[in-house]
C-alpha cells in the first residue's frame, strides 16, 4: 500500500505552523467487514516531526485516531526553505517518511 | 455498544488487558513512559502501549504520566463539537496557557480504550495541537496537559449521533 503523507508548513511571525494529512486506514480492530470478519487493528503508533533534524513533536496514536489522520501544530522558529521531516511507524511495523520545505 | 464490548471481551488480548489494568491500579508502579531520549527516527519501542489499553481515566493517566492526579484548569482550552454527527471523525484541539508543557493526551472516557492520542512536546513547540479522533458513543472528552510535571485538564461532553469506532 502506498503510504502518502501530505504536509504543509508555513512560517509567519517567528513561528512555523505545520499541517499534515497522512494516508492510513487506522483500523481499530473493532469493526467487521462485509463478510462479518473482524478487520484486524492497523494503526500508526508513533509519528515524529522534525525541523532541520531536530524533533519538534512526537505523537503517540491509538486505534481511536481517525482514518487518514490530520494534525496541526506550531513551533517557534523555522524559516522559508527549512526542511520539515515526518516519519511514522505503525503496529504492524510498517513505516513511511517524507520531507517538505517550509513555504 | 454491547457489540463493541463483546468484541473486546472475546479478543485475544483480554488477558493482557486485564493483567495490565490490575497491575496499574494495584501497584501504581508503572514507569512513566515519557522519559526517553530523543531519536532521529520513530521507534516503536518508545510507544506507551500500556497507556492505550486502559479502561479508565485514572489507569490511563497512571500508565502514561506515572500519576493520576489531575486538576481541571481554565488555562487549558479545548475545542470539540457539541454534537458529532459522525463519530468516526471528530475534530478535537487543545491550547494550554502554561509554562514548561512537556506532554499532552486526549482521552475519550467512554471509548473502548480511553486514550485516543498523546504527544510529547519539546521546548519551543507550542502546546496547542489539533487532530481528529473517533468516538464510539456520546462521551466526555478530556484534554490533559503536563506542565512542570503536574497534570491540568479541560473536558467537554460530545454527543455522538452515529458511533464511529471504525
From TrEMBL, chain A:
Domain Sulphur oxidation protein SoxZ: 9-99
InterPro entries: Ig-like_fold, Ig_E-set, SoxZ, SoxZ_dom
One Pfam family, short name: SoxZ
Domain of life: Bacteria
This protein's name: Sulfur compound chelating protein SoxZ
Lineage: Bacteria, Pseudomonadati, Pseudomonadota, Alphaproteobacteria, Acetobacterales
UniProtKB/TrEMBL annotation, chain B:
Pfam families, alphabetized: SoxY
Limits of the Ig-like SoxY domain: 62-165
Organism superkingdom: Bacteria
Protein name: Thiosulfate-binding protein SoxY
Amino acid at each position: 500500500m502506498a503510504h502518502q503523507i501530505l504536509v504543509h508548513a508555513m512560517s509567519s511571525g517567528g513561528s512555523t505552523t505545520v499541517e499534515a494529512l497522512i494516508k492510513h486506514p487506522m483500523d481499530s480492530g473493532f469493526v467487521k467487514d462485509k463478510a462479518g470478519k473482524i478487520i484486524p487493528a492497523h494503526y500508526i503508533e508513533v509519528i515524529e516531526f522534525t525541523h532541520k533534524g531536530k524533533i519538534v513533536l512526537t505523537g503517540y496514536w491509538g486505534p481511536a485516531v481517525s482514518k487518514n489522520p490530520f494534525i496541526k501544530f506550531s513551533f517557534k522558529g523555522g524559516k522559508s526553505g527549512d526542511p520539515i521531516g515526518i516519519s511514522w511507524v505503525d503496529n504492524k511495523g510498517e513505516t513511511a517518511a517524507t520531507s517538505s520545505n517550509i513555504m | 455498544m454491547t457489540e463493541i464490548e463483546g468484541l473486546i471481551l472475546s479478543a485475544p488480548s483480554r488477558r493482557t488487558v486485564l493483567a495490565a489494568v490490575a497491575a496499574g491500579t494495584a501497584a501504581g508502579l508503572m514507569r512513566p513512559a515519557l522519559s526517553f531520549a530523543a531519536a532521529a527516527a520513530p521507534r516503536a519501542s518508545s510507544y506507551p502501549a500500556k497507556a492505550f489499553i486502559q479502561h479508565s481515566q485514572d489507569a490511563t493517566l497512571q500508565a502514561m504520566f506515572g500519576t493520576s492526579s489531575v486538576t481541571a484548569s481554565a488555562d487549558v482550552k479545548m475545542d470539540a463539537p457539541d454534537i458529532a454527527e459522525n463519530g468516526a471523525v471528530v475534530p478535537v484541539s487543545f491550547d494550554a496557557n502554561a509554562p514548561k508543557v512537556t506532554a499532552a493526551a486526549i482521552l475519550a472516557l467512554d471509548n473502548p480504550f480511553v486514550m485516543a492520542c498523546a504527544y510529547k512536546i519539546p521546548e519551543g513547540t507550542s502546546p496547542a495541537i489539533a487532530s481528529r479522533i473517533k468516538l464510539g458513543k456520546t462521551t466526555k472528552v478530556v484534554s490533559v496537559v503536563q506542565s512542570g510535571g503536574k497534570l491540568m485538564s479541560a473536558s467537554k461532553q460530545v454527543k455522538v449521533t452515529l458511533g464511529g469506532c471504525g
